[in-house]
Structure formats: structure tokens, C-alpha cells
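Hi there, hope your week has been kind to you so far. Would you mind checking whether the C-alpha cells look sensible for this chain? I owe you a coffee for this, so here goes:
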Amino acid sequence: MDEPSIEDPAEALRLIQREQANLERELTPDPRWMFWPWGVAWLVGSGLFFLRYGPGGRVLVDMPDWVPMVALIASIVIAGTITGVVGMRSGRQISGPGSRQGAMYGFAWSAGSTGLAIVIARVSDALPEHLVGLLWGGGMVTLVGTLYMAGGAIWNDRNMFVLGAWINGVNIVGVLIGPGWHALIVAVAGGGGLLVAGLVGWLRLR
């Protein structure tokens, strides 16, 4: 069978589209490594908070008070390290506006997390103890969901935007139900949503 002539405009367009798709796959970080570490971190960290500080203050699994927080912080550090390394490796191949967008978006995560943590720490002493955890959890999850939606809008990534909307919806439900249940809902629905997003993104990228 004769190969199609490159002089054919339709075939030339198809060739360009194939090359663009191949380039996108090469430059886009593996979604599994961008979402799965955070999904595991939410499952482990929030799951332990639910087991230690359950609904109505019940202790479902007896463990030292410091275990859930240490586990959450450690899992977040590990997840952040993994995604940071993956993102930097991908970013080395990109220059210009795309690179600046990524850098500014990363700075927004750092600035938003730091600013929100300072605000919550400043007002926590004025709240009942059972609401302090809900304020920390609900506030931080709101920030994550909103930044994912913003990232989806910046890069026209429907998968990321839907994930952010899902996280915000899950967070609202958890906050309305109350302390204890919020941690369980965030662990299962939020962490599970991140795992699903990584799988869907990987399948779409393939």
C-alpha cells in the first residue's frame, strides 16, 4: 500500500496532531505520581484522625494523641517530595510562559498554605477544642480543592478541575456533618478521589 503523501493537507494535519500528542505525553508528568502520593497521605492521615478522634469524641482505636498528626505530617512531606521531584523533572524540558505558570502556581500553593495556617493558628485558641480540628481540616481541604480547580482552569485540564470540585464538595459535606465524620469522609472520598484522578489521568495520557 502506498504511503500517504505529505503534500495531502489532511494527512499533514494528522501528522502534526500525532506529533503534538506525542510531545504532550513526553512533557506531562505521570498523573499517578502527581495524585497517588497525596491520595495515600489523605487516606492514612485523615483515617488515623478518625480512628483516634471519632464522632462525639469517641476513641475507636486507642493510640497516643501524637500518632495521627505525626503520620499526617510525615505522609504529606513524602507526598510533597515525590510530586516535587516529578514536577521538576518534567519542568526542565519546558521554558517560557509555561514554565513561569508552573512556578507561580507552585508559589501559590506555598503562600496559600502558609497564610491559612497562620490565620487558623491565630484564632484557634478562641474556639472549642472539638472545632479546632474541624477548622484545620476543613480550611486546608478547601484550599487544596480550590487550587486544583484553579490549576484546571489555567491549563485547561478538565480532570484537575473536576477533582478540585469533587474535593470541595466532599469537604463541605464533611464540615456540615461535623467533627470526626469529616476526617472519615476526607480520607475515603477525598483520598479515594485523588487515587481515581491519578488513574484516569494516566489512562487519558496513554
Remarks:
- The mean pLDDT is 86.
- Residues 43 and 195 are 10 Å apart (CA to CA).
- The radius of gyration is 21 Å.
